[in-house]
Design a protein that fits this description.
Blueprint lengths: L2 E8 L4 H8 L8 E5 L9 E8 L4 H17 L7 E5 L5 H10 L2 E4 L3 E5 L11 E5 L11 H13 L5 E5 L5 H8 L3 E6 L2 H13 L6 E5 L1 E2 L19 E2 L7 E5 L2 H14 L9 E8 H14 L1 E9 L2 E8 L1
Parallel strand pairs: 6-7, 8-9, 8-13, 9-10, 11-12, 13-14
Antiparallel strand pairs: 1-3, 1-4, 2-3, 5-6, 14-16, 15-16
Family: Belongs to the methyltransferase superfamily. PrmA family.
GO molecular function, one term: methyltransferase activity
Keywords: Cytoplasm, Methyltransferase, Ribonucleoprotein, Ribosomal protein, S-adenosyl-L-methionine, Transferase
Length: 316
């Protein structure tokens, strides 16, 4: 049987978002991510996908191109290239084996495991078990690691928290296991399903509510990852109902929502509202910080891995 290799280049910021969108059209085990080879290019990663050349191949390629068109139009991906192969490359099977045995320790307490990992946790460790997936928030992306580090520092038991753009659900599960009550929302149905799976898999359904929704005017920004229209997604009003918000999303969404993040947070006699922002690189951090300071926030913490940065703000 012949195989079709689909190849697309993407930026550092967009790689996980691209993978989440592609989960609609292609099996995870048929994807491979590698670093882009030309140092001077705008691209950071190359994503290769493999499909059997059968009667549906042209329809499937059209579906993938449709999914990727908005990201390509905004300069986050290259155009889709296709190649005919005699067989599927061996590295796909090897990568699938590696993913299934994932054990990743993050911060002082978190341990991220794949669904099938056999691991005996120490008493002080907090296990986050996820479905084998390339969906955004897998636990391997620097933005996710940074978010977990800041959550470990700032989440306290019984806080009312919001995970905006919940993706795989890893941050929602982490907050619940730290003792918080969580509202997890995303405007992509694939992400909502992944979050619900993670919540059930980690047995935190009593603490986490999962909804396909947005915060305030976020519904007017379109699909955060460039996907289909989200006109029917309900908006949650920003009414000082959260003690902590975490948002691992594009910088442009952080900037647009800064005033509503401020309105959605509350301060009490024992806790000042905290916003944890992640999902962007240091070249966008000044823009994000300016928007947050203008909205009334004060920076209170930050973490960084290479060019990736996460910043925590409190109500001023």
């Amino acid at each position: 049987m012949s195989w079709i290799e689909l190849s697309i280049d993407t930026t550092n910021e967009a790689v996980d978002w691209v993978c989440t969108l592609l989960a609609k059209a292609i099996a995870v085990e048929d994807m491979h991510i590698s670093e882009y080879q030309e140092e001077s290019s705008q691209w950071t990663f190359t994503i290769q996908m493999y499909l059997p050349e059968d009667a549906r191949i042209h329809q499937r390629i059209d579906e993938i191109e449709k999914i990727l068109t908005p990201l390509n139009r905004t300069g986050m991906t290259s155009g889709l290239q296709t190649f005919i192969l005699d067989h599927k490359p061996v590295h796909i099977a090897l990568e699938s084996h590696t993913a299934s045995s994932l054990i990743r320790k993050i911060g002082d307490r978190f341990v991220v495991l794949s669904a099938t990992s056999d691991y005996q946790a120490h008493p002080q460790e907090i296990v986050l078990r996820l479905q084998n997936s390339l969906a955004f928030g897998s636990g391997l992306h620097p933005a996710t690691i940074l978010s977990l580090r800041l959550l470990e520092r700032h989440v306290k038991p019984n806080l009312d928290t919001l995970d905006l753009g919940s993706g795989s659900g890893i941050l929602s599960v982490a907050m619940a296991k730290l003792g918080a009550k969580v509202l997890a929302i995303d405007n992509d149905p694939i992400a909502v399903s992944a979050t619900q799976d993670a919540v059930e898999r980690n047995q935190v359904t009593q603490q986490v509510t999962v909804k396909e929704a947005s915060l305030g005017s976020a519904s007017q920004l379109g699909h955060w990852m460039g996907g289909d229209s989200i006109e029917s997604v309900p908006a949650i009003a920003a009414q000082k109902q959260f003690d902590l918000i975490v948002a691992n999303i594009f910088a442009r969404v952080h900037i647009s929502l800064a005033p509503e993040f401020y309105k959605a947070l509350r301060s009490t006699s024992t806790h000042s509202g905290i916003l944890i922002t992640a999902g962007y690189t240091s070249d966008r951090s000044e823009n994000v910080s300016s928007a947050m300071l203008e909205a009334g926030f004060l920076e209170c913490d930050r973490a960084q891995i290479d060019e990736w940065i996460a910043i925590a703000y409190r109500l001023g």
